[in-house]
Amino acid sequence: MTSDDGSTSPPVRTTINVDIENNIPVEVRDDLRKFRFSRLKGISVLIVKLIYYYKDKQTDCRCISAAINSSYTSQLSLETQERLEDISLEELADELPENAPRYVVISYPVKHPDGRIAVPLALINWKPTTSSPEMNTLHASGLSMFQQVAEVSRYTQIVEVRDGAEALTEELLNKALG
After folding, report:
1. Which end of the chain is more exposed for a tag (fewer CB within 10 A), N or C?
2. Mind listing the pLDDT tens digit for each residue in 56-115?
3. Residue pair 142/76 in contact by the 8 Å Cβ criterion
């Protein structure tokens, strides 16, 4: 890295605060609680995105490599992107970004062989292969903490989706939740 006077110095790397439990806004916690206790019959989802703050600005992790190499303070937080009710998996796949990871809490009806219908919660770890390695690393660092804050860890499966919209199928969810 070259400074204004022409001398070179190594890039300054900052430590990223990955303690997202303390950086989760009250609004996101409230959204998660309301979603967990809602009694919906169809497919419903709560989409949450990881937000990376640097230079007193917020980014959806798009400019992360430049930010990581900056000398500014940085931290991670979460933000509710959207809540969708009574949608299809195809509509959900259309709502999710092709190049950015998301945490998706889904209420998905499962029909059991004896005819009962259960509507368990699941956590979809939406992590497209087209996401940058930096974004995937930050997303992975917050997964277990998000799972705890969402209070879905005791009752649900984590469904990994890496191959985009084509991979988000009824077969995948039925296999994971059935």
Report:
1. N
2. 555 555 444 444 555 455 677 788 999 999 999 999 999 999 899 999 999 888 888 898
3. yes
Among candidates 58, 36, 148, 47, which has minimal Cα distance to 97? Answer: 47
Distance (Å, whole) CA 156 – CA 122: 5
Taking the CA atoms of 168, 169, 172 and 175 in sequence, report the sign of the dihedral they define: positive
- Cα 156 from Cα 106, distance rounded (Å): 10
Which helix (H) or strand (E) element contains residue 140?
helix 133-149
Contact call for residues 101 and 135 (beta carbons, < 8 A): yes
Task: Report pTM.
Answer: 0.74
Report the alpha-carbon distance of residue 4 to residue 7 in Å, rounded. Answer: 8
